[in-house]
Design a protein that fits this description.
By secondary structure, this protein is α/β, with parallel strands linked by helices. The chain folds into 2 domains: about 90 residues, no CATH class; about 210 residues, Rossmann fold. Helix content is about 25%, strand content about 15%. The protein contains 10 helices and 15 strands. The protein has a 6-stranded mixed β-sheet with strand order 4-3-2-5-8-9, with helices on both faces. A 4-stranded antiparallel β-sheet has the order 1-15-11-12, with no helix packed on it. The longest helix has 16 residues. It starts with a helix and ends in a 7-residue tail after the last strand.
Length: about 400
């Protein structure tokens, strides 16, 4: 529950938290935001090599023909909670939860962003008829990530830097209008070409639905033991979400069903939603479990969403999701090679031997599959380019 919102029970108004000054701490992105990269195409999977006899070239690749790899970048759209409680510190980080989310996003996109198209929205947005409850909206249109040359140098490219700068223009304040935000994003997300995935990062339950009504058991003020006044605790039989008792009481109802329905609408349109619950969301684990299930990304065991308690867990969860979405061990080729016995595969110019257990093999004339150790290496996120080259006998393990 947003502590700022609970405090508002006394006045019946939503409280806005104070934004932290950008001068309080050094820029967490300064060390990895500069520089420029050279070479590489937008997909990061096809590197041209001059024609010539089949022999090792300057890059160490044996062959005279690059077989183009079919690159269909999935869309990853980040929906980031910037409610008032996101100003609270994140354990094992020197920054608050909102800034830590930006740092984690920068790390995963620096690693796999060249394999993606990505965009972002934040919620709530400033303004609106109910202060602090204005639904979120897109702030960064979905677009191709930077070339892999930036990732290879450990740098943020211009697209990633623009995303981080855009996110930094907002500071934590207000409530958590999750359902309204997702509903508002449905037309934008369903219009994107190709596969689309949503990553919802939040630190509490959805609320801010003025049409909601709920019993005390679904009232956030009651769930978190807020005080209606110095002498009255929000506990049954008192329902602090009752508008007869608190004018803005319905805004504190857990907006469970509307949020599940909004995410289900995306899933029905072919868009899966991953849910990350930051510190503060634990008491609402059952709600986030339902949202993750509706989004088609429920893990096999409880909790079904991705709970994080500190900065390392946040980064690891985002990295896991990013790799799962961005990297496939199936490689589709734009054309079949003249002779499949004269084809080799390279990871960043390093030879990957053909092997049915831990290398690669053909599954059709235009498709090959990485397996075992080779697939694991690719999914580690440490491989930036996959290159398929024809012209030399296949190296078999």
């Amino acid at each position: 529950m947003r502590r700022q919102l609970l405090a508002a029970l006394v006045t019946g108004l939503l409280a806005a938290s104070h934004a932290c000054s950008s001068g309080d701490r050094p820029d967490p992105f300064g060390g990895a935001g500069g520089g420029s990269g050279g070479g590489g195409n937008a997909g990061g999977l096809d590197v041209g090599i001059p024609d010539g006899p089949p022999s090792p070239d300057a890059d160490g690749l044996c062959g005279n023909t690059i077989i183009p790899v079919v690159v269909e970048r999935p869309n990853v759209f980040f929906v980031v909670d910037r409610s008032g409680s996101m100003i609270e510190a994140l354990p094992k980080s020197t920054y608050n939860k909102y800034v830590s989310a930006r740092i984690a996003i920068s790390k995963v996109l620096r690693s796999v962003g060249h394999r993606l198209r990505y965009g972002a929205a934040v919620f709530p947005m400033p303004g609106g008829t109910i202060a602090g409850c204005n639904p979120g909206k897109e702030i960064f249109p979905t677009q191709d990530g930077d070339p892999p040359s930036f990732a290879q140098q450990g740098l943020n490219g211009p697209v990633l830097k623009k995303l981080l700068t855009t996110l930094a223009a907002y500071q934590p304040e207000g409530g958590t209008p999750t359902s309204g935000s997702i509903e508002a994003l449905v037309p934008t997300l369903t219009a994107l070409p190709g596969k689309t995935f949503v990553v919802l990062a939040t630190d509490g339950a959805p609320n801010c639905n003025p049409s909601a009504s709920c019993p005390a058991s679904e009232c956030m003020a009651n769930i978190e033991g807020a005080m209606l006044d110095p002498n009255t605790k929000c506990a049954e039989p008192i329902n602090c979400c009752d508008p007869k008792l608190v004018v803005d009481g319905p805004l504190y109802c857990v907006d469970r069903q509307a949020t599940v329905d909004a995410v289900q609408k995306l899933f029905d349109a072919g868009i899966k939603t991953y849910v990350i619950g930051m510190p503060g969301a634990e008491v609402y684990a059952n709600v986030l479990n339902e949202v993750a299930t509706a989004g088609g990304t429920a893990k096999q065991v409880l909790p079904y969403y991705y709970p994080v308690q500190d900065e390392p867990q946040l980064t690891a969860s985002l990295q896991e999701i990013g790799i799962k979405v961005a990297i496939s061990c199936t490689v589709d080729l734009g054309q079949a090679p003249p002779d499949k016995n004269l084809v080799n595969v390279y990871f960043d110019t390093k030879l990957v031997q053909s092997s049915p257990t831990d290398g690669w093999g053909w599954t059709s004339d235009k498709t090959l599959e990485l397996n075992g150790a080779a697939c694991d290496q690719l999914k580690s996120g440490n491989v930036y380019q996959v290159q398929v080259v024809a012209g030399c006998p296949t190296s078999v393990k």
